[in-house]
Amino acid sequence: MSTDTYDKPVPEITPESKPYWDGLNEGRLRLQRCSACGKVRHYPRPLCDACYAFEHEWIDASGRGRVHSWTVAHHPFHPGFKPDLPYVLATVDLEEGVRMNAPLRGVDPSALKVGLAVHVVFERATDGLTLPAFVPAG
Amino acid sequence: MSLKGVGAVTGIGETRYSRASGKTVLALQLEASLMAIRDAGLDPKQIDGLVPYAGSGVVAEDLATAFGLPDVRYAASTPMGGASCVAAVQSAIAAIAAGICRHVLIPIGRNGSSGARIGMRVQHMPQFRTIGEFEMPIGAIAPAQLYAPMARRHMELYGTTSRQLAEIAVTVRRHAILNGNAMMTKPLTVEDHQASRMIADPLRLYDCSLESDGACALVVSAADLARTMRARPVNVLGIAEGHPDSPSAITQRTDMTRLGIAKAAPRAFEMAGVSHADIDVAEIYDCFTYIVLCQLEDLGFCAKGEGGRFVMGGTIGLGGKLPINTHGGLLSQAHMVGMNHIVELVRQLRGEAGAAQVENARIGLVTGYGDMGDGSIAIMQRGAHA
């Protein structure tokens, strides 16, 4: 879809987060790892909260995780999401020890449970934007 | 130095609440402010401190200009969303304790119903930058959608049920009907709640607060002056704010069932020197039913995971062990970002709460909650009046 007809909110990408968004466009889920102490953090931010080092590298996450919690969205708080209703938003514990929110596709809401194994997929939103989502593993 | 007993609420004001005020937010706030200042028996020009709500667009300069204030010595704001109002009282009392000012006006007002919708407003707030970049694009737009996973996690871990959340909505509605200035005036049953449409599972329509137009305001004064002012003072015995781990995104919080108020509550109780059994009435910030349940746990009224059982059986209704939200709260009176909770607590402790009066209310508690988990708490006591 071209950028002009996309009607959902788009991220305001910063120099710190650009490698994350670039990674999604390449089909990679990238996380920051502190170069000094090795702590992995997410969402992207400038500073390590454990050792206060700015220096970090980007690692490729395995993409595997487990459901920590979820909601099923039924009300359109933004007109752009109205056609998607209802949709599952999962909070997922990634294997790397960090958590993220993303839609969970292909699951009947009644089958959702804490600990459900999922893996990441990549959904092209516009020519320049790819968003993460999850599907059940295996 | 402790803030115990340093400040008192000496004036309260509240406009009518509605879906469409037809007035500007500034005019609404001035109307409520004037009521609060007159209730305190002051002339507006005696106000020397201002702590306006950061999210309303009205700033200290607007208030100083409107009232022609000659000597504002303290102006601050406490941008913590729904935790702002109680935190503003803390800010005011800290300034009073430091000798900076004596009478602080704390107004709030909004066209929350007729103005911009909450889901659209959130995207432009700096404290939601993280959510704005990483969660709104994937469809987590509004507080209901961001808070629902906290409630779901609580249900999965502790067996909390939607009917237990309904008990909160139904109880608070019963109180609103007694109020006379509440937007919701029809009785609500657990079945009505269960039949209401799903907003963000597990949160149904009647788990969610209102969007309202209106304003309310407080005057907080130095306690040594308060004794001889017009109205009976309500003394602040303990007050604190607390911020959750990872305040900018719930997703990243180690324990998403623990709110910032869990850190603030022990400080406020210790400062006040009172125990949970001393609390006669509690006005608990209720943007969503689940947030009430979680705060009751984090405040220490019951253990983590016991909130669902705690709210059943009439405990939180008038006549129960811990009557909450005796005005109808954000769920059924109006969404005034919790300032209406402070106004109601003051009425209760003055003995001016009408049909919802808790008999012999001497000590009460009010909380704020906002911006994905910030918390604030004040413990207040009916004061002596000369």
Describe the fold and architecture.
The complex is a heterodimer of chains A (138) and B (386). Chain A is 6% helix and 39% strand. Chain A is mainly beta and 138 residues long. Chain A has a single domain, classed as OB fold (Dihydrolipoamide Acetyltransferase, E2P). The radius of gyration of chain A is 16 Å and the shape is globular. The relative contact order of chain A is 0.21. Chain B has 386 residues and is an alpha/beta fold. The two termini of chain B are 27 Å apart. Helices cover 34% and strands 17% of the residues of chain B. In chain B, helix 7 packs across helix 11. Chains A and B meet through strand 4, strand 5, strand 6 and strand 8 of A and helix 5, helix 6 and strand 5 of B. Strand 4 of chain A pairs antiparallel with strand 5 of chain B.
Any key phrases for this structure?
heterodimer; A: 138 residues; mainly beta; OB fold (Dihydrolipoamide Acetyltransferase, E2P); three-stranded antiparallel sheet; 1 helix; 8 strands; 6% helix; globular; B: 386 residues; alpha/beta; Peroxisomal Thiolase, Chain A, domain 1; nine-stranded mixed sheet; two-stranded antiparallel sheet; 34% helix; 17% strand
